Recover the amino acids of this structure.
């Protein structure tokens, strides 16, 4: 996961996604994902890694927060960029398993 100091904004580019005629969905649907821009020369990205995670441990990432858009003052982070990668030396280990759960919290 990409970490930053409190109040940091990650420069990103919106990636538009158009869905049409997907079974079980509305006829047309639009959404945006984000692509984090490369770091600037004066400031690099800081990545965090969760290693040796046990099956009974949970890591929750906030992908989107509408409160950040409502406030608009940088006090609430909009998202948490994340990625996957190969870890050298672990090619013969069993693959990590993950479960993605999307939850909408409305109050």
């Amino acid at each position: 996961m990409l970490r930053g100091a409190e109040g940091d904004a990650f420069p990103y580019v919106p990636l538009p996604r158009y869905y049409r005629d997907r079974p079980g969905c509305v006829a047309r649907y639009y959404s945006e994902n984000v692509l984090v821009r490369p770091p600037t020369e004066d400031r690099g990205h800081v990545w965090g890694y969760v290693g040796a995670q046990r099956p009974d441990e949970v890591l929750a990432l906030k992908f989107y927060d509408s409160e950040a858009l409502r406030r608009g003052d940088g006090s609430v982070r909009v998202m948490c960029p994340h990625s996957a990668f190969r870890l050298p030396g672990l090619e013969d280990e069993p693959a990590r398993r993950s479960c993605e759960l999307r939850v909408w919290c409305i109050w």
About this structure: DSSP finds one helix and four strands in the chain. Residues 66-71 form the longest helix (6 residues). The two ends are 27 Å apart (CA to CA).
